[in-house]
Amino acid sequence: MSMTKPAKGLTRSTRLDLLISLVLIIAAITLPFMIDSRYILGQVVLALFYAIIASQWNLLFGFAGIFSLAQMAIYAFGGYVTAMLCFYFGWNVWAALVPGALAAVIFSLIVGLACLRLTGVYVALLSLAIAQTMYLLIVTDTECYTMVGSICRQFTGGAVGFARFGDLGMRAMLKGKWLVGNYAIVATLFALTMIFTYAVVKSPIGLAFRALKDNPGYAVARGVNRFQSQLLVFGISAFFTGLAGGLYAAHFQAIGPGILSMSQLMFIIAIVVVGGVGTFWGPLVGTIVLVSADELMREAGEFRTLGLGIIIAVSIILMPKGLVGRLTDLVRWLRRRNDGAIAARLLEKPAPATE
């Protein structure tokens, strides 16, 4: 079979996605060689974590229409389980990552079972209540669970959290270049997350998710099981979110209740809104824009939050579909204009003379 045959069946949008992916892969490979600052590379790693969480919340809300506010709780759950397996049982971080992600899936399914019998704003309120309850249980945990030397430790780590329970091994392997190794690991997870998300969105399962979002009554009438489908998207989203949480804990060698703060959750939502809700590349674009803006306004002090708020407000007013949605509309308009110009030239072309 000729290797060129499958390419003929690719749509224009798929070819564009492949081109963007190729550009991103090249950029990701060359980035560590172009950045000398450890601080900037560290911020890039943090931005990749944001992009992973945002992409999975976008899958949950943008494609499946489930307005859950428990995404940071799922992220934290994966990170805490990974840290606790290493801290209490002496597990290697790599061995604890997948169990931490699976624990996050189980937690998300519990959240899903509690929320998915509700609709709309009630899902958001209940999921937010679950996340805040988790935060309160951690920060109010003051009972001594075990003694570490002369220090009493709480089961959940309390307000302090966990630290120095292990790392990804790059410090021992690469010495002073360990941050490049961690960057490569997190970038690989981001790539795998995007590939899997793309496969889900383009599959019949993704079509069922979008149908339930756009017209749930019609989707159910056509045989889509609403409860099972939405529970499935909860689990899919939670696996990569929980895995990212474990990598976050291992990268920073620490995790605490601050990860569950409302500001973190709002930042993730803002990333998706600015980039474009329900667009595949929206979370990545939103992450680049907001993380860059936040970094540029680092010296602005109290005006930093105000500046981010203005950017978000302007984006919502002028670009309700987000940056990617606006660019998509612009490309479609240019394409229609170009097609119209070609058609007009064909109509103006005189017909060939006949004998």
Kindly list the characteristics that best describe this protein.
355 residues, mainly alpha, 2 domains, two-stranded antiparallel ribbon, two-stranded antiparallel sheet, 15 helices, disordered N terminus
Q: Strand pairing plus helix content: what structural class?
A: mainly alpha
Q: Pick out the low-confidence regions.
A: 1-7
DSSP strand content: under 5%
Helical amount among residues, as a percent range? over 70%
Description:
- With 355 residues, this protein is mainly α.
- The chain folds into 2 domains: 222 residues, no CATH class; 86 residues, no CATH class.
- Helix content is 73%, strand content 3%.
- Strand 1 and strand 2 form a beta hairpin.
- The longest helix is centred in the last third of the chain and has 27 residues.
- It is globular, with a radius of gyration of 23 Å.
